[in-house]
Write a structure and sequence with these properties.
- The protein is an alpha+beta fold and about 80 residues long.
- It contains two helices and four strands.
- The chain has a single domain, classed as 3-Layer(aba) Sandwich (Glutaredoxin), CATH 3.40.30.
- Helix 1 packs across helix 2.
- The termini are close together.
- About 20% of the residues are buried.
- The model has no long low-confidence stretch (mean pLDDT about 95).
Length: about 80
């Protein structure tokens, strides 16, 4: 099973984005995941990791929930 972590900048007000990504990942993969975690951060961080591997970093990628879900997909069930 898989752990998805969404680290977001609290002072920047990115909680809504983090919740949107978490909700989309849960809706898409639900029971195939062990956990979807929101991790607080600062300094403008918005990073999505799957089992510790970065699949999205706002410094390198454009924010698009559907793209983030597609980046998570290859990792879901890979360990099964």
């Amino acid at each position: 099973m898989t752990r998805v972590e969404v680290e977001y900048c609290v002072p920047c007000g990115m909680l809504d984005r983090a919740q949107d990504v978490s909700r989309a990942v849960l809706e898409q993969f639900g029971e195939e995941l062990d956990e979807v975690a929101l991790v607080t951060g600062d300094h403008g961080v918005f990073i999505v990791r799957v089992d510790g591997e970065v699949v999205f970093d706002k410094d390198e990628d454009g924010y698009d929930v559907d793209e983030i879900v597609r980046a998570v997909k290859p990792h879901v069930g890979a360990a099964a």
